[in-house]
Amino acid sequence: MAMVYFRLNVFFLLFVAARGVEVTDENNGIPYGVDCSFPIHYKNLRCNGLLPEQESIYETFMEGCYAKYGSKHCDDYENDRIEMNLKQPESMVNYTDTGFKKIKAPTELFQLLKTHFDRNHAKMKEEKWPKGNIYVNHWASPTYMISVEDTEMEGGSLDLKNKVWNAAKPVVEAWTGMELKPTSQYGIRVYTEGAILNPHADRLPLVSSAIVNVAQDVDEDWLLEVYDRNGNAVNVTMEPGDMVLYESGSLIHGRPFPLKGRYYANIFIHFEPTGRPLNFENYDYVEEMDEFFPPYLLPNGGWADEWRRRNPTGWHQASPSAAHVDTLPAFEAAAHNDVKTLQQIAMEDSRSLFAKDRNGWMPIHEAARGGCKEALEFLVDQGVPMNAKTHKNKGVTPLTIAINAHSEDHDAVRYLKEMGAEL
Ligand SMILES: *[C@@H]1O[C@H](CO)[C@@H](O)[C@H](O)[C@H]1NC(C)=O
Ligand SMILES: *[C@@H]1O[C@H](CO)[C@@H](O)[C@H](O)[C@H]1NC(C)=O
């Protein structure tokens, strides 16, 4: 186990070192950190007069919300936003050295989105926001939706949404170096004159993400503001067809300078890491994963308690395969020595053979408990670690489970011993 841990860390170090520094946008102004362009960690600006207009812009922002919803609703949202900004980013595992990168969207992806926008621009619908939601000043500058899955839009369908997932996923995976699972796709959202996007970290599980600018009609660049690893603000500009990759759960991002122009249309595509580094051909990494928290959250971080409160039963993607199949059949088949079904599962999605349930059990533990020699043989053959423990430290191995459930000279126990399995 120690060796696996060591290898994973070496891998990450090499991975980070190989990437170098990715500079996305030059910063022409005087460097500044949070709470300068907009409140981020505290509710008042501390900026030594660097961006004097922003103070009254924020005041107008909050007053607009109060006038529409009353202060209670707005303050609740605003306090939540600030608390998340303070606590969530530092609790996140980062997979890139910069946290963001601007590239060109794949041509196919941009074409899908641009076509959808052009066909349906005239049919866009006003976006409905929950009471007091302060992420965008929609009370002053309404936002509109041209949803890719909205069947009232020409060409809108789940099929289109899936095409967008499929076109974006390999790009974000290549950037983060991690296998990803889709978690949320939102847009196309159309912002209007005066719009401000309140700087925030995305709620989990929106972790590894992309923004594509689909269309814009502006008098000045509408700046995306992010923070580099030194805590300095960076203005990122986008033109139609640009794609900004960002680690949205740890990177604070916003558009604190009001939109000057008619509209700005974006789609947001979010994924969460399954825990498997892309170039891992085996499943050692499963052993590394926490049994309760998702792989991208530090179990000792300041956000862990809050995450637990919001997810009392733990991370349900503990198995990477749960991304697309129900892993239960693998456990059942293993428990009943049903090798035929295991074979089928191996063909369709071999990763569910390596799944862990909430108690840290894998199918191989079920096979051991059931004394299922053939299932054990098959799983070991497939590369499932025969000494996998149910928990990192105090867990038990398949051999221990098999001996406890059966006699020392049971077929399954003998098989495991012959293979050199450990207690
Ligand atoms: C970002 O752009 C705004 C508006 O032009 C400017 O005032 C600010 O100094 C810029 N910030 C950085 C970090 O360059
Ligand atoms: C991840 O990035 C955020 C934002 O830059 C930072 O606060 C946090 O400490 C980083 N996480 C780790 C584990 O370094």
Automatic annotation (TrEMBL):
Residues spanning the membrane: none
Span of the signal peptide: 1-20
Keywords: ANK repeat, Signal
ANK repeats: 359-391, 394-423
The UniProt record lists the keyword Signal: yes
Taxonomy, superkingdom: Eukaryota
UniProt-recorded name of the protein: Ankyrin repeat domain protein
Organism classification: Eukaryota, Sar, Stramenopiles, Ochrophyta, Bacillariophyta
